[in-house]
Amino acid sequence: MQRVKQLAAHLAGNSPTGGLNALQAKNPDDVVITLALRSPLCKAKKGGFKDARTDELMLEMFKIVAARSGVEPAAIGDVCVGTVLTPDAAYFARAAMLAAGYPDTVPVQIINRFCSSGLMAVTTVANQVKSGQIKIGLAIGVESMSQNPDRGGPEFSELISCNPAAKDCKERMGWTSENVAKEFNVTREEQDVFAAESFQKAEAAQKNGYFAEEIAPFTVLQKEANSDKRVPVVIKEDDGIRYGTTKEGLAKIKAAFPQWGNSTTTGGNASQITDGAAAVLVMTRQEAEQRGLPILAKYITTAVAGVPPRIMGIGPVYAIPLALQNAGITQDDVDLFEINEAFASQCLYTIKALNIPREKVNVNGGAIAFGHPLDE
Fold it and tell me: In what residue span(s) does the Thiolase N-terminal domain sit (predicted)?
């Protein structure tokens, strides 16, 4: 009977008609986040993680979670790892977890939804907790674009590639950015202004120490100068934020894809190629309170939406309203939006299409400034 009462309260709290007050209500079976950490984000091929393997980043993340979470690893009901480019990711994740000292009774699964793989890992374990399958779930996202650059995959069967929409799935991401810019009239100047603001906000946030609580220093192996020998080093800060970036400086950068669209996408107004990792621990509110753990946030819902591959970056235009509808709130109820800056073109169009106040979006900068490990 107690479980029935909890479910009733939970469903009432997440009713689409409940509004903001319902979301803010506290119920024992709320899914809550008790730990949210990330590594520094480092420039691929050049930054602090350039010599670190994907499984080594996983290993370090598992160790940090065990040390900081306040939860014994054996209590974790399932682990979901989001990663995109790693070969044999399932073996890597399982092996890294065991090497970090987790018992073999803790299972691991791998998920790949391209750039939202890390978010889907969170969604997966949150839904497992919500349904009662597990009490505690760990979501990890990890990507080494230094060690596993995106070289594309094998060619499609002609039975598939004969379909125009299916064939578009193999095109480069820069092509999709140019398509969005041209189709929705996002100018080069607008993109450069937006990108400069992203760098400037990230610079200010880093200088003010805003990221200190969310970043866990990572110990990784790095090659010594003029040698293949790798030695341990500790990386503590994001290294891709370009201080002093201006729209005038960005305007001087040549187009990255002059063969497509209006040639508005550049290395300055698109996200950097980056290495990084992150972790989120979820459980019920009741479990967190019994363990005396801090509750950082309450998980509400996730929404996904499909769009034509040729303009794939506009997905948030459809997913955001769906998430708001699922949560039973309006856009005006939201104080802050985090929208992935894969390209300035698609992020700007999302803001315009949904009429989101610019000052509410990515207040501490976004992926253009930090970089974009594909899983995060």
Answer: 31-285
pLDDT, tens only, 76-104: 999 999 998 865 656 899 999 999 999 99
Q: Which amino acid is at 278?
A: A
Under DSSP, the state recorded for 313 is G
pTM of the model: 0.93
**Which residues lie closer than 8 Å to 248 by C-beta, 6 or more apart?**
none
Cα–Cα distance between 288 and 136 in angstroms, integer?
9
Does 133 lie in the same domain as 44?
A: yes
CA 51 vs CA 172, 203, 215, 220: distances in Å: 26, 25, 20, 8
Round to whole Å and give the CA distance between 292 and 286: 10
Number of Cβ within a 10 Å radius of residue 247: 19
Do 82 and 226 fall into the same domain? no
Q: Which of the 8 DSSP states describes residue 224?
A: P
Our count of domains for the chain comes to: 2
Structure-token pair, residue 201: 């906000």
Domain that holds residue 221: 171-272+303-369
